[in-house]
Specification:
alpha/beta; binds guanosine-5'-diphosphate
Length: 300
């Protein structure tokens, strides 16, 4: 939590602290409620969730009467956690099945942090005593496979890669095959994400998944979204959700934005929970997403 707070606080204080200071005003008049609304909208919370939150806060503040700072903090914390939701299953399904490794596909637009996230996730799993195989199914950029392999060497996971420009689905298939042969616990498949060729991407991602499924079901399809891209990220999310069934969202670069509200917006948009957050470029900068800890980091 301390780490989460220090990573978020540089950029995100504006949301939590801003709301808290507005709520602490002696007179909560219409203008103040509008400012609260603006603060939430600026942080990319989205229109409907913002209205919902403001409505609930107004009602509860009225009932509360006089408010101590501690009461206000508690109230804001409760309502933000409620908004994010606590009943979703945010666990990652990365445990091997009886004779087969768990398979995780990592998808998203190039530049969002897919490869970095795959590397960080491998590190977490290896540190937890699991054996991990990486599949470099982004065969269109040679640099992508090199980057993944570098991560693999750094964290102690083998990387399966194909020829440059080769068939991504066959690399993914080989990676899972290798994982089975080695008795690995988890296979992480990094995929390509060139959104400008939407049809190509659709065909390709769908094919990668179908081909991998010849070995058995895919356990997780993680969609990586860059938190700094705001509403654009939501548009991307929709496109990917049309192609494959997303099981979890990874929100990256939360260390570089004051728009943490995107957590709320993207979950509403896809009906899929945020499972992990990226808090920097380093190997340890990936954290499980936990609403209470996240809100505590926001409010400080
Ligand atoms: P890909 O094209 O989706 O595979 O993206 P990369 O993994 O190559 O990441 C693109 C850039 O974003 C790299 O410079 C990463 O170091 C950086 N990056 C990835 N995740 C994070 C994060 O959580 N925080 C920050 N600040 N940078 C990140």
């Amino acid at each position: 939590l301390v780490r989460l707070r220090s990573r978020l606080s540089r950029s995100q204080n504006t949301l939590g602290q801003g709301l808290l200071s507005l709520l602490s005003r002696e007179h909560l008049d219409e203008d103040t409620w509008e400012e609260i609304e603006d603060t939430l909208l600026t942080a990319d919370v989205g229109v409907a969730p913002t209205q919902e939150l403001v409505e609930r806060l107004r009602t509860r503040v009225k009932v509360l009467g006089t408010r101590t700072p501690a009461e206000l903090r508690g109230l804001l914390r409760e309502e933000l956690v409620h908004l994010i939701g606590t009943d979703a299953d945010r666990s990652l399904h990365t445990h091997s099945h009886e004779e087969r490794p768990a398979v995780v596909m990592v998808v998203g637009v190039n530049g969002t942090g897919k490869t970095t996230t795959t590397g960080k996730l491998a590190r977490v799993l290896v540190a937890d005593g699991r054996s991990v195989v990486l599949g470099a199914a982004d065969t269109f950029r040679a640099a992508a496979a090199d980057q993944l392999q570098t991560w693999g060497e750094r964290v102690g996971a083998r990387t399966v890669r194909g020829p440059e420009g080769g068939d991504p689905a066959s690399v993914a298939f080989d990676a899972v095959k290798e994982g089975i042969a080695e008795g690995a616990d988890t296979v992480l498949v990094d995929t390509a994400g060139r959104l400008h060729t939407k049809t190509g991407l659709m065909d390709e991602l769908g094919k990668v998944k179908r081909v991998v499924e010849k070995h058995g079901p895919v356990d997780e399809v993680l969609l990586v979204l860059d938190a700094t891209t705001g509403q654009n990220g939501l548009v991307q999310a929709r496109v990917f959700a049309e192609v494959v069934d997303i099981t979890g969202i990874v929100l990256t670069k939360l260390d570089g934005t004051a728009k943490g509200g995107i957590v709320v917006a993207v979950q509403r948009e896809l009906g899929v929970p945020v499972k992990l957050v990226g808090l920097g470029e380093g190997p340890d900068d990936l954290a499980p997403f936990e609403p209470g800890a996240f809100v505590d980091a926001l409010i400080g």
